[in-house]
Write a structure and sequence with these properties.
It is found in: Cell outer membrane. This protein has one domain: Beta Barrel (Porin). It has five helices and 25 strands. A hairpin with a 2-residue loop joins strand 3 and strand 4. It is globular. It starts with a helix and ends with a strand.
Length: 520
């Protein structure tokens, strides 16, 4: 039987081989080659996807950043190891990034259907952290932190969190169709220049941001002559929650006490975009939805508190100082919606603890505080909104086709109402309150006031020797104007800080951002 089976299989194989050879000898009509064709409907860089009527464009950039005197690429040394201003503070932080975006568009009877996707691949090093945990027995406990660990002994690129080593991020992923935008895109509240009226530095206060996009469902009505109105519902959880702080949780400013998501933020923006420039007015409504006073439902909870924000933005083009020169300026006011002023990449400016020296006799050093949640409350009480105002702007001058310089600045003021000040600082700011309780009664505090202002000013110069390749140097100075006065005694104010007496006073810091970027 084995012999018979072998003969049958061998014969079958021979027949297949002969048949294949005969088939190969027959003439075959060549398949038409589909060449990639240029699509001129939507501007340069688009091509038709072969076999379809959809046009596609690929783009992106490769960027290298080095930040001098900062523990974060996004902002200056406002807190943590950076704010400590000691041997745990980085001399520099380094980042390399590749951005890839894919833009597709198809003409339909309802208008253009567009999809847009943008992702980044990032490598960050030399960003010292605290092994992924807040340092224990420190001022973070007093300010509402937690955890008990020794000072870290390894940098982020050796295994701690905070975005060091390689990461992948999704900036944008949205569909546009018949006036609707659905997905992750820049907030309609943001000014046309988002966080960058003339700078590269990410952390300016004074307006909304979301340069990395926010989930939204938006309808934009076009009225002609550059006038449009956008109505939007957008996710608040990722970028627009500054904190609903339960002061009964302990610490000078309690701890944020969010419940589950219940409502998106609602945004409306009116824009006029013409040859002279751009004007935009935007408003936002923000629901503050707090959890329970204590650990169970039986403890009760405060009512929801709606906050709001309003912003005006103006860009003036073709000014007399030179071709391409621009002035961008915006102003914002918030009440219970702090992130529309101290935007997500400036969030460190809403949780400041900067240390430096002191000439006060008996003081080991000095410290300046600034905390800006959306609301504060205590067990049995209702949410008290925190109000802010702010502005930012820049003037950009082109020296020639290769060089330009921008001078920019930003400012924000944070204001607690009288009820919140009493809860934090006691009656008249003199007796009791969570701030004094967090620092052994705060006997040395001569003025207790959680309000503060933060100012930023900077200058950037860019050189573009060839098209789409730019080198830039961006210097930013930050000044914290805090309202506390006197001294506090605390255990370990930040990483490496001893238990000692610290003077309460204003602080400042400066950072340098060096960047090389090739767009494609």
């Amino acid at each position: 039987m084995k012999l018979v089976k072998s003969l049958i299989l061998g014969s079958a194989a021979a027949l297949v081989a002969v048949g294949g050879a005969q088939a190969a000898d027959l003439p075959v009509k060549a398949k038409a080659v589909e060449y990639v064709k240029v699509c001129s409907l939507y501007g340069p860089g688009f091509y038709y996807i072969p076999g379809t009527d959809t046009c596609i464009k690929l783009g992106g950039y490769l960027r290298m950043d080095m930040v001098v005197n900062a523990n974060s690429v996004a902002g200056p040394n406002y807190n943590g190891p950076g704010g400590a201003n000691n041997r745990f503070t980085n001399g520099y932080t380094w980042r390399s990034r590749e951005d890839l975006n894919i833009d597709t568009r198809t003409a339909t009877e309802y208008g253009v259907v567009r999809t847009y996707f943008d992702a980044v691949f990032t490598w960050t090093t030399d960003n010292y952290a605290v092994n992924g945990a807040a340092p224990g027995s420190t001022i973070y406990s007093a300010l509402g932190g937690g955890g008990t660990v020794a000072p870290a002994s390894a940098p982020n690129n050796a295994g701690a969190g905070n975005g060091s080593y390689g990461t992948v991020g999704v900036y944008f992923a949205f569909i546009q169709f018949a006036g609707f935008t659905m997905g992750k895109a820049i907030s309609q509240f943001s000014a046309p220049w988002t966080n960058y009226p003339g700078n590269n530095f990410d952390g300016l206060v004074g307006g909304g941001g979301t340069v990395t996009g926010v989930n939204q469902f938006t309808y934009t009505a076009q009225f002609g002559n550059g006038v449009s109105l956008a109505l939007s519902a957008q996710d608040q959880t990722q970028y627009f929650q500054a904190g609903v702080n339960n002061l009964s949780a302990g610490g000078a400013y309690g701890a944020s006490d969010y419940a589950g998501t219940i409502s998106p933020d609602f945004v409306a923006a009116l824009k006029i975009d013409q040859a002279w420039g751009v004007f935009q007015a935007s408003v936002a409504a923000h629901d503050n939805h707090a959890a329970y006073y204590g650990s169970t439902e039986l403890t009760g909870h405060p009512d929801d508190k709606w906050g709001w924000a309003g912003q005006l933005a103006l860009s003036i083009k073709n000014i007399p100082t030179g071709p391409g020169d621009t002035i961008n300026v915006q102003g914002v006011y918030t009440d219970g919606a702090t992130r529309y002023n101290i935007q997500d990449l400036a969030s460190q400016a809403g949780a400041i603890a900067i240390y430096s020296g002191s000439s006060l006799p008996g003081a080991y050093g000095s410290v300046g505080f600034g905390t800006a949640p959306d609301t504060v409350f205590v067990a049995g009480g209702q949410q008290q909104t925190v109000k802010t105002w702010g502005m930012r702007g820049a003037y950009t001058h082109n020296w020639d086709p290769y060089w330009n310089t921008s001078i920019y600045g930003a400012y924000a003021g944070i204001m607690y109402n009288d009820t919140a000040k009493t809860l934090i600082c006691g009656v008249g700011g003199a007796v009791g309150g969570t701030f004094r309780a967090a620092f052994a009664g705060g006997a040395g505090v001569t003025n207790c006031n959680p309000d503060y202002n933060i100012g930023q000013i900077g200058i950037i110069t860019r050189w573009t020797p060839v098209k789409n390749l730019t080198f830039s140097a961006d210097v930013t100075y930050t000044m914290l104007d805090q309202k506390y006065a006197g001294t506090i005694t605390t255990s370990a104010g930040a990483i490496g800080k001893p238990s000692a007496t610290y003077q309460l006073k204003d602080q400042d810091t400066v950072m340098l951002l060096l960047r090389a970027q090739r767009n494609w």
